[in-house]
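Reproducibility note. Readers wishing to regenerate the assembly model reported in the main text can use the exact inputs given here. Chain order matters: entities are listed in the order in which they were concatenated for prediction.
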Amino acid sequence: MDFVHQLVQQLINGVSLGSIYALIALGYTMIYGIIKLINFAHGDVYMVGAYIGFAAVTIGHLPIWPALLISMAITAVLGMLVERIAYKPLRHAPRISLLITAIGVSFFLEYTSMYFVTPTPRTFPEVMPNISFNLGGFIINGQQLLILSITIILMAVLTYIVQKTKLGKAMRAASFDTETAQLMGVDSDKVISMTFCIGSALAAAAGVLVGVYYNTIDPLMGIMPGLKAFVAAVLGGIGILPGAVVGGIVLGVVEALVAGFLSSTFRDAAAFAILILVLLIKPSGLFGKNTNEKV
Amino acid sequence: MFFAKKKFKLASMIACGILASALFTGCGGGEQASSGGGEKKAAAGDEIVIGANFELTGNHAQYGANANNGLKLAIKEVNDAGGVNGKKIKIVEADAKSEAAESVNAATKLISDDKVIALVGPAVTANVIAESQVATDNMIPVIGPAATNPDVTVENGQVKPYIFRACFIDPQQSEVMAQFAAKDLMAKTAVLYLDSSSDYSKSLGKIFKEKFEADGGKVVMEEAFLAKDQDFKAALTKIQTANADVIFVPAYYEEVGKIVKQARELGITSAILGTDGWDDSKVIDIAGKDALNNTYFCTHYFEGDEEVQGFINAYKGEYKTDPNVFAALGYDAGKMLINAIERGGEDSKKIRDSIETIKDLQVGTGKITMDAATHNPIKGIVVIETKDGVRSLRTKIAPEG
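Running the prediction on these inputs yields the following structure tokens for the assembly.
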């Protein structure tokens, strides 16, 4: 295999890996965009979504698409519950308390799940045909194409919701200034609740699709993808939806190239080096505008 | 969208801290809690209390929990049959949380609070090594069911008096697989693909390389991944360019299943070899039947063997699922300890002596004899081939000595 061939295959690998990061990063970035909370539990909501999808497929004997929708619906409710119970009482607390609570919620979800489903990984039955295309020697996986398309569609839908609908307008207003928005008649609590609802549904979609693609789910499956999605969101400019997608794909490509041409040992180091560099050089991310600091 | 920069920076810094800690878990060095060797045992009453220190949570929970199940089955069987020397055995569980320091805490708690007379576990090498100091100080014998690293029972060339294991050691595995690659598969070149977060994987890789090159082969590339990785295609694309005869992946089944699946998707047809970490039927579910053709691994027992049927059926009856290798070794460790208590009574020191003299004991995976000089059981090793989703015995290497 010559160099060019390998390079192209690595780019394909990178984009497919990146589309998974992007899919998870969408929910991350959306929640951050509205309530400025880095929701560390997002990766674990993703895990719960994967398990609900798994249960729907194995116990409920449903085909994959209804299972996906059910998982999104139940996980959306879970997300709203988490917000109501864990985050809402801290609405006026310093942001750091929220962040620490998010970490707590993350552990809570991981180990409560582990208690109920046991730490043994589960494998999805074959619910989706797994076709690989061989285009002139380049291998492209059909499920990966599907994940990439779903990511882009969801990004478009979300952008539409946030930019064009009344709910979106309320979200942006609440994001800008919760109290003033409330004075103008926006029900901030409801808006934030809706944000969590949508964000968690997105995480569930990602969880089910990734579970089907990689074929295993376990209670700690959300940790690393959650962190990588966080890096992707920061890279693209946290709070910006298209940024999350671009950030995710850039991250995936960088990882693939580092693993393919330098050393696979440096792969994760490269991913987190990106995070540090972005924070040092352009904390607002690729798509972010530099804003003046409010004092 | 808009955010206040200052707060974001603070949050980001914390986030970085969390990321860093996430990166380094797994290689955390065990802080050895030194506790003065005082009381040794207080096994009063009508129960014999033993400790089960396993990884019940954290990254290795699936191994720890299975080994724990195996141990519990062995103890339940003996209790149902009337106990040992007229007494029932009681297991006190503690969670090693998949971390060396937590393993020490759990062992310390079991020894000083629960007054256990012997310990079984944890499942993973690093966690057994971590607890060995506190167990030795308190003169409490330990059986590590699945800790295959040589350093578990040996320190500075000296065997640790109180530490035993129920399995073969890594050099044997690597030796068998290197020889298998060179002699049976006629391989000339090999690639190592190691889990760089695991001492187990790294030490197996190192020894494989020595043996394979001593047999005239050549290791042409070494790549690494991390436990819990999902996507291996980048490194596998690189491995493909090496075009080696065999790929050696000494790792655990969850990652192995995905590696084999993705390797075959990319069109890699070379033989893929592994070690006892592969030994779980889930590999077949994860990788798929076709992908596993032309793969071989060595392990402790072959599930089709006559003498292991008793254990497999008992396990299925108790847990409604097939045992994996950790469960089998946990069961073996339990059997060894029961035998030692039968012969040594309830004194920790005497139990230690009795473990050392175990001879031709029938355990779940076969007959074992303890080598008093190394504290490793003398046990056979099998090489398993998977074809169309069915496992068959390829070679069986009888115990030495």
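We highlight two features of this model. The beta strands of chain A are 122-123, 132-135, 138-141, 216-217. The CA atoms of residues 53 and 59 of chain A lie 10 Å apart.
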